[in-house]
Model the fold of this input.
Amino acid sequence: MRLRPEEVLDLELLARLHTGVTPRSAISHTTSALLWPLPLPATLEAEERGNGLIHVTRRAEIGRVKRRGVVGHRAPLLARDVRFINGVALTSPEWTWVDLAAILGRDALVAAGDALLARENPLSSLEAIQEVVDRRPKVKGIRMARAVLPLLRHGVDSPLESKLRMRILDAGLPEPLVTQPVHDAHGNYVSTPDLQYREYRIALEYEGEHHLTDPVQWGRDIERDDRLRSMGWIVLRFSKYQLRQGWPASERKLRSALAERGWRAAA
Done:
């Protein structure tokens, strides 16, 4: 679930109005996450969109904002912790991510962190996130942030790809590489699987709904998979169904493919 363009404009307008009358403040927490935007669980996003509340953080030495429609916070914000997007002062992506650690579960926080490091137009870096984590040792949720930070990866294209990777790790299977290009024996580019086990020549592709509704994209996906299979790769495809009720069968299929290629679980 993502904000529609008109909803983004409404949220931006509210944010601009509140920060405009509140000196040395920035939109923060889930409101900031929606405006960057960072992925949130669907139920939380719907709640944040529907409650009409704006999260605003002021510097620690100033009192919290006490105004109808505002959830006020105080924090030791530095100049680099505030960014201006379309005239709205927001807490930085990495500061926002640490705030989210107090309310998100592990998988959702991984997805939000991966979004900061996205393949296209990344919002932050591991070093920048680490710096904020180190600078906020007593903030609520910091233990979760510290635990999740090592799980973040560069180049993830969607929150559900992050969830797939976490499912694989929770199953005790080896961690796959994220969005690494595959070339043929002559060095020609073939494909960039969402996830892959290069050693075992296994590619994992997460198929979002747009893959099913766009016939051109669907055809390209088929050709992509055929190219990999012609090189001896196993291509496994996953969808939202496989991540939910279909996961047990999907895990067995992946485990079987790994075993077929020589992987053995640690004793």
Observations:
- The longest strand covers residues 54-59.
- The radius of gyration is 21 Å.
- Residues 5-151 form one domain.
- Residues 164 and 235 are 15 Å apart (CA to CA).
